[in-house]
Amino acid sequence: MAQDLLFPRRCPICDRPVKPFGNLICDSCRQVPEPLSGEDCLRVIGEADHLFARGTGAFLYRSIAPSLYRFKFSGREEYADWYAGEMALAMARVLAPPRETLLVPVPIAPGRMRERGYNQSALLARGIAQRTGLAVSETSLLRVRETPPLRRLPAAERRKKVAGAFHACGDDVKSRLIMLIDDIYTTGATMDACAAALLEAGAGEVWFTVLAMGAPNSDDQRIPRQTDDRSGGI
Ligand SMILES: [Zn+2]
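Above: inputs. Below: predicted complex with zinc ion.
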């Protein structure tokens, strides 16, 4: 792309201009993120009752945490292209969704949207739609209430905090298979709250695909304290 000549694309792993030029990720960084295995996926989802029927992710959270942090908090929207490609591959391989599937990104609250300038999940959903030809809806599921950061809370608390935070509407979802798209899955509290709203609005079934999965209260959850543009200098 001509734009890449002026603003070289940064690698989602090392954050340096991608080598070789024109790729989405450095050849040497491609092996860094750990792909999520079927067993990893089951371990993270656990045995709790969930409202979604199936789901998968591309990577183990701990192996891609610094990248994800920059994507969400340091304005690295450009990573979405590579992320979406990896998510589309994992989704096709593990879930093989039918063509009528509707991609629905997990929405963020308007306040957070203004602060960040983008919904990271919507960027991922658009990228997956481009690669798979599946339809995407960014208006079928809304966040009606802002939720506090859930990262340090136990599963039961997360569930309470996020219950009723979403509302689904529109004929798009009726009797349809919905594929929720988000950046990270931890306890599934957010995914269940989204699924509850979608099922209430008449969705047939709810599946999910995320970039990364990690079990709560484990090393998977470490958020690296590195390049955070917001901290700045004095
Ligand atoms: Zn790199």
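Residues 11, 13-14, 16, 26, 29 surround zinc ion (CB under 6 Å).
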